[in-house]
Give the backbone structure.
Amino acid sequence: MSALRFHELTVKRVSPEAAGSVAITFDIPPAELERFHFEPGQFLTVKAVVDGQEVRRSYSISSPRSRLAKKGELEIGIRPVEGGVFSNWAAQSVKAGDTISVMPPDGRFVVKKQRAIHRVGFAAGSGITPILSIAATTLEEQPESKFTLVYGNRRMSSVMFNEALQDLKDRYRDRLTLIHVLSRQAQEVDLLQGRIDGDKVRAVIDALLPVKSMD
Ligand SMILES: Cc1cc2nc3c(=O)[nH]c(=O)nc-3n(C[C@H](O)[C@H](O)[C@H](O)COP(=O)(O)OP(=O)(O)OC[C@H]3O[C@@H](n4cnc5c(N)ncnc54)[C@H](O)[C@@H]3O)c2cc1C
């Protein structure tokens, strides 16, 4: 399928994120906008030659759908993994103006119900990327919708996309609820301390998110 070929995209911006992570923004030329149209939650496959070896990895799109239409931008967030080939190369070496091979968006981690009154997302660490795109797009495109994000990290200083989330919170004060669960920083409430596992999800839902309120 021609749609799943690699295409050369220019890196427009590289922004530092928490704990050595980076947000990489690609410039999508007008002629390629349709090809790179995406459903929030989808990912891009990127390819590069690192230390003489060709490597391919997938990274979820973190930007909202509107940014592609308005600015011709697609953003991914990469957190370096210890000993990881691509993530460390990307975090250290990629800069604005570079060209990277990128496949059009793909993936099925997308909302099934197009309109919703209250969406809830659970994310931990770099797993925020697809959820951020879904949250921002929901809040922008559906003025009647609320979004609750339960986001697990070690400590506040390692929260990826914290600034983007704060911007969303400022813009949608009454419609976005952010619940941080931290595993290595004391929280005033026990419920918000620890890792997000099955018990934590059940406890958060019991205390804060009546099942009937969620779409
Ligand atoms: C759909 C999808 C979406 C994703 N979205 C994101 C995202 O938004 N952000 C993000 O940061 N990541 C995301 N990922 C993960 C990403 O694709 C990469 O897997 C990640 O960046 C690590 O790649 P790497 O090349 O740095 O690590 P790799 O080189 O693949 O290594 C991964 C780990 O395995 C270890 N390892 C490698 N080789 C060996 C070996 N021979 N023996 C023992 N251990 C070994 C390494 O030390 C390292 O800890 C996503 C993955 C998928 C599938």
Observations:
- Residues 66 and 140 are 8 Å apart (CA to CA).
- The chain has a mean pLDDT of 96.
- The domain at 118-213 is CATH 3.40.50.80 (Rossmann fold).
- The radius of gyration is 18 Å.
